[in-house]
Each structure stands twice: as C-alpha cells, then as structure tokens.
Amino acid sequence: MKCGVIVRGLHGPVKVSNMENDIQLTGIRSSQVEARSMSGNVYYSGEILARGSYFLKSFSGRVDMDLPAGAKFKLDATSGRGGIEINPSDFQLTMQKQTSHLVQGLVESASATVSLWTQDGSIRVRKK
After folding, report:
1. Would you give the DSSP letter of residue 88?
2. 44 contacts: CB under 8 Å, gap ≥ 6
3. How many CB atoms lie within 10 A of CB 104?
4. Average per-residue pLDDT in the chain?
C-alpha cells in the first residue's frame, strides 16, 4: 500500500504492513500486534497484555511506543544506525544487555514480549 495506516481503539489481533508511509496504532488493546513499514514510521500507543507479542519494524523509519506506567514486558530493541531512547525509571527496566544500537531488558516478571527493529531509524519507548 502507498497510503498511511491509522488504527484507533481496536480490541483484537492487529497485523499491518505497508511500503512507504507511516503506521499509527493508538488506543489498542490486543495480545497480538505486528506492524511493518519499509520506509515509514511506526507508532504504537496502547496496552501491553500478559503473554502478548508486540512486534514493530521499519526499515528506514522511526519506531515509537507509548505505554502505560504499569506495563510489564520483555524488551528487545535493535536499531542498525539510529539511537535507542528509553528511560529505565519509566518502567523499572532491568537491563540485560545495552549498547548504542541494542537494548534488551525486563520489566518486572513480564510474560509479554516487545520486539522493536529499525535499520536506519531511531527507537523510542516512553511512559504515556
């Protein structure tokens, strides 16, 4: 698709992909989220459910997540050329591995997984 994708207030599995434009997922309540864009930004704002799987990927765009303060998750964030911005105190994140292009960590006794990937863009995870 050559148009942007906006999904709001969905309760249920989400799987979205496009080639050139942004993907914006807001108000989402789902245990299965997958969003992929080749050159657009990918944005997620919603809940993190127990045993959920959240995968956001953009080859050359930015990947951003705004999560509730009580979210519990295992984080795996990789940015080939961009930076990764996350404030560990926002989520009581215990770092397992951290470099300028990789962050792996755990928030409490998380059963949900959050995987974020971009080759050329940056990654940001913050508390909403």
Report:
1. H
2. 25, 26, 28, 33, 35, 54, 56, 64, 65, 66
3. 15
4. 92
